[in-house]
Amino acid sequence: MEQRELGRSGLVVSALGLGCMGMSEFYGDRDETESIATIHRAIDLGITFLDTADMYGTGTNEELVGKAIGDRREAVVLATKFGNVRGPAGEFLGVNGSPAYVREACEASLRRLRVETIDLYYQHRVDPKVPIEETVGAMSELVTAGKVRYLGLSEAAAATIRRAYDTHPIAALQTEYSLWTRDVETEILPTVRELGIGFVAYSPLGRGFLTGAFQTPDDIPEGDYRKFSPRFQGENFYKNLELVEIVREIARARNATASQVALAWLLSRGDDVVPIPGTKRVTYLEENARALDVELDAAELDRIERAFPQGVTAGTRYPEASMAAVER
Known about the structure:
With about 325 residues, the chain is of the alpha/beta class. The protein has helices spanning about 30-45, 60-70, 100-115, 130-145, 160-165, 190-195, 235-255, 260-265, 280-290, 300-305, 320-325; strands spanning about 5, 10-15, 15-20, 50, 75-80, 85, 90-95, 120-125, 150-155, 170-175, 200, 275. Helix content is about 35%, strand content about 15%. The strands form three sheets. It has an eight-stranded parallel sheet with strand order 3-4-5-8-9-10-11-12. It is globular, with a radius of gyration of 19 Å. The model has no long low-confidence stretch (mean pLDDT about 95).
């Protein structure tokens, strides 16, 4: 498995990571046995960069990951996040970046994950009520205490990233990036590259849309978050489906899958970009891993570039209320 350093941080991870969120929530049914088998197979394949968060499944996702890596801790780079606060029934209670909450959240994640140290600890969303210097200052104390090795941010604005970096080195920024979400190329990517921060791309397959698996809105299972995602609804769905067909055509021509082409494109964006496609099934994990064998040629990249200019996707990334929490 190819390895990539996250910026100039010194933290080296597998070129593809594994997003574990869907194993516990948001994307339909759950199967703990299959999910753990998927994590074990990822490690066997060299995909050792695992991503979770305390809000996924209201803590149950961290527990699942902790159970899966119990006898394989040294084989993985473990990333988790704090800041999105949820109640006991899963209700969203807002964002908290206060120093006291940083410490409390970290201790809770360490318990659920059954580890002594978190390799990469992200602030999941920026808290507009707390100066970023205070939040990152508290996170840096966790590094000093040996509870965390590296610090990260998620969905932070360029100015916030700079202020955070001035407080303590930031190893990685995690933000949505894919063929249908290229906003980061304007300001965010240039900023993190200037500062030597790695870029971790979540939802690199457009929450599954870029795989070509969905041909009508009815293909989305009941209880699935995507039922409420603007890009999966109504006219937006069919406009975006036309874009996906181009990816599928390129994939068919080279005997690959649409997922592999979409990931290969993202991997080509720079050695500092690490996609973390999420899956809860071994078969899709193995398919994604083979994207590393797909090297798009100049003609294919040019066709993709013309078909997927920034802003081409119909619909916003999140519903309006959630969009207010990104790039703060």
